[in-house]
Design a protein that fits this description.
By secondary structure, the protein is of the alpha/beta class. It is built from 9 helices and 8 strands. The chain starts with 9 loop residues before the first helix and ends with a helix. The model has no long low-confidence stretch (mean pLDDT 97).
């Protein structure tokens, strides 16, 4: 197909057509409260229901500016020491929270058969860059220190997140490579991450409108978060990739920030890092949270999980 006619899966196209028919206001035109409610409503409508798990428990840990809310997910009531997954939600560092990604976290915990700790970091514009990253790093170090409140002994960390959370999963890995935590990062899983500056990229213009995430929304999040483009904590492409942990990197072919993820794949390859790169064809940004509305996205998530298990087995 020509660049002007990208491949779109039938179920993805049906969902995009339904969204277009709703003709709601753009995120940049909403109040902050409306934008946050709209994001939660989208995931509530479009994602598969949450899994039943043995453990779903809210926790807190100390952060650089007060307590950080966390949520523990585990399909087992008790378990032997092993890897623990730290999950950082998407939403441009502005509109996501524990609830927007609750269903997805239950699915990851169930499919991986591992504990997941979701981090409710501080959000912009109330707390611009680097507040969110500082919280994600602090919470991950807390998980690594095997606190009694967690009730699970971590032998290694898996950092994972989507979109802004994908950015955090890379940045936290770099921070913990520079100053090690009590246990190492054994796998990182950035899902359609912002790794390099998306502004000016071909994908941002090609998929500017009509593909769930819009160029205007990317610009809105950027204006709220106020990242320092010269700081690797904002643009992890600027960091040291030679010490990158084993990686499963996931992008979506119809994503305006797709090229940012591809840039990171190239950086990993150039550094000789151990990674799997999966570009899911015919789906948009946020496909991991659209699995009810776009049923084929469940198989994409399961491909990602299979790659994670392979990389963990390879590391072992």
């Amino acid at each position: 197909m020509s660049q002007s006619e990208p491949f779109i899966r039938p179920d993805m196209k049906a969902f995009l057509d339904a969204l277009a028919a709703m003709d709601g206001p753009a995120i940049a035109e909403m109040t902050l409260e409306e934008a946050r409610a709209s994001y939660l409503a989208l995931h509530t409508m479009a994602d598969r229901p949450a899994r039943e798990l043995a453990v779903i428990r809210d926790l807190t840990c100390a952060g650089p500016d007060g307590d950080i809310p966390l949520r523990l997910y585990d399909p087992r009531e008790t378990r032997e020491p092993g890897p623990v997954i730290a999950f950082y939600h998407g939403g441009g560092y502005v509109i996501g929270d524990l609830e927007t990604h609750h269903n997805l976290c239950t699915e990851i915990a169930a499919l991986m058969d591992l504990p997941v700790v979701a981090v409710d970091y501080r959000r912009a514009p109330e707390h611009p860059f680097p507040a969110a990253i500082e919280d994600c790093e602090a919470a991950t170090r807390w998980i690594a220190s095997n606190p009694a409140e967690l009730g699970r002994k971590a032998t290694g960390l898996i950092t994972i997140g989507d979109s802004a959370g994908g950015n955090a999963s890379i940045v936290v890995g770099q921070q913990l490579a520079a100053i090690p935590a009590d246990v190492p990062v054994v796998l990182q899983v950035p899902i359609f991450p912002l790794a390099s500056d998306a502004m000016g990229s071909a994908s941002l213009d090609q998929f500017a409108d009509g593909f769930v995430l819009t160029k205007a929304a990317v610009e809105f999040f950027d204006a709220q978060y106020k990242p320092d483009r010269n700081d690797s904590r904002a643009m992890p492409i600027l960091g040291d990739h030679s010490g990158a942990p084993p990686t499963v990197l996931v992008t979506a072919s119809l994503d305006p920030i797709r090229d940012s993820g591809r840039d990171y794949a190239k950086a990993l390859a150039d550094a000789g890092a151990d990674f799997i790169f999966l570009e899911m064809k015919g789906v948009t940004h946020s496909f991991t949270n659209l699995r009810q509305a776009v049923p084929s996205a469940q198989a994409d998530l399961e491909r990602m999980i299979a790659a994670m298990k392979f990389m963990l087995g390879d590391a072992a």
